[in-house]
Design brief:
about 40% helix; single chain; 11 helices; 5-stranded parallel sheet; alpha/beta; Rossmann fold; Cytidine Deaminase, domain 2
Length: about 280
């Protein structure tokens, strides 16, 4: 279709390598040139996928224990060139830079590392620099580039490849998801830096949070109002609870469930709380 942007060249650099080998094979079968880094390139090569090392493109080796891999004009000009503009296309030709149609990357597991109880130095090493830079560059330039930030998006990418490329609508949706991804990451890093590294504690000078939608609720506080349930990156709590039976939850159901949870936890032994309109009507221990 005319509105689909063919995928001819991809930059692939991921920490989470779930499904990577299979995706690489699909890209190769579709005739996509793959530029890749470090261990990502190693996994692809082991799967028999042709790969161009990023150092072959930049003419500069990865260095500083992998801290510097893709931070180079040969990479980022290829991501950021707006190919709707003839001036950008001319500059790419003059600079001998080949553009990318697709960027596939996910970030170092900073949140998981901190949650594991790792020390400060180990946690600092999991603050990704090159990954967010690539993600944001590709998302900004979604008019010309598609960006994939999670393995769950691979199925949609396979479909797009089979149909001749990505549509602008698809690239916009991927870009929005990418900016949400980096926003969650940055909030986690900023919060940890203030609370732990600077030592501001739980009630420091800045606090940020991001929330991901879990479900649409049956209705809001009143039956004519809409409502949805969101949870933060830490998960847990009632937002992560499994509903065993009954109809879909409403806003009021969650308010009552929270009241029941708090009432029951006032006791040291197992307890059951019965709630109506956020008020305990009965408690059994």
């Amino acid at each position: 279709m005319a509105d689909r942007l063919p995928i001819k060249r991809a930059l692939v650099s991921v920490y989470d390598k779930t499904g990577l080998a299979e995706l690489g094979q699909v890209l190769a079968e579709a005739g996509v040139e793959i530029v890749s880094t470090g261990s990502t390139a190693g996994v692809l090569r082991e799967a028999g996928v042709p790969v161009v090392g990023v150092e072959e493109v930049t003419g500069f080796p990865e260095c500083l224990d992998g801290r510097v891999k893709t931070l180079h004009p040969k990479i980022h000009a290829g991501i950021l060139a707006d190919r709707r503009l003839e001036s950008h296309n001319q500059q790419l030709a003059e600079l001998d830079v080949a553009p990318f149609d697709l960027v596939i990357t996910n970030l170092y597991p900073f949140i998981e590392t901190v949650a594991s109880g790792a020390g400060m130095e180990e946690s600092v090493e999991q603050i990704d620099i090159g990954g967010p830079t690539m993600v944001r560059a590709a998302a900004k330039n979604h008019a010309s580039v598609a960006v994939i930030t999670a393995a769950r998006q691979y199925a949609g990418l396979r479909t797009a490849l089979a149909e001749g490329g990505t549509t602008l609508e698809e690239r916009r949706a991927l870009a929005a998801a990418a900016f949400r991804h980096t926003a969650e990451y940055d909030v986690a890093v900023a919060g940890w830096m203030g609370e732990v590294v600077v030592g501001e504690g739980e009630f420091g000078g800045w606090h940020g949070a991001t929330y991901t939608k879990v479900a649409d609720l049956r209705y809001g506080e009143n039956s004519h109002q809409a409502a949805a349930l969101y949870r933060d990156a830490r998960g847990g709590g009632l937002a992560g609870a499994q509903q065993l039976h009954g109809k879909e939850m409403s806003y009021n159901n969650y308010v009552d469930a929270d009241a029941a949870h708090r009432a029951a936890y006032d006791f040291d032994t197992p307890a059951v709380a019965i709630i109506k309109h956020a008020n305990p009507c009965g408690i059994a221990v």
